[in-house]
Amino acid sequence: MDTDSGQDRRRFQRVPLAGSVRLYSGSALWETDLIDLSLKGVLVARPAAFAGAPGARFRMDLRVNGTLVISMGVEAARIEGDRLAFAWDRIDLDSFARLKRLLELNLGGHERLHRELAALGA
């Protein structure tokens, strides 16, 4: 019997952050708010008239602190009420460097980030 909670199974710590998100699919665009971010995923508020399902692919641009932009290719992992969870699977080097630095600052240092980076490669 599996008694682990979802948090226990999660490898990557989620960091609550305020920011804006743009989701692109073909010619469709949705704008919404960032809820939290991890080394492998993003949780956002569900935008009005969102037309997507788990497994659907999107391009996502995150804007944090008004200027920091992180662009990535994502796949919808879960749709739960007013929230959407995405896993990223494509990211350019500059965006990955920004993501890594943002998480390092919010996780409390490079040691925690290095553990998460090791888990990413596992």
Automatic annotation (TrEMBL):
InterPro entries: C-di-GMP_BP_PA4608, PilZ_domain. GO terms for molecular function: cyclic-di-GMP binding. Keywords: c-di-GMP, Nucleotide-binding. Signal peptide: none annotated. The keyword Flavoprotein does not apply. The keyword Nucleotide-binding applies. It comes from the Bacteria. Residues 8-104 form the PilZ domain. Binds the second messenger bis-(3'-5') cyclic dimeric guanosine monophosphate (c-di-GMP). Can bind two c-di-GMP molecules per monomer. May play a role in bacterial second-messenger regulated processes. Binding to c-di-GMP induces a conformational change of the C- and N-termini resulting in the exposure of a highly negative surface on one side of the protein to a possible effector protein. Monomer in both c-di-GMP-bound and free forms. This is Cyclic diguanosine monophosphate-binding protein.
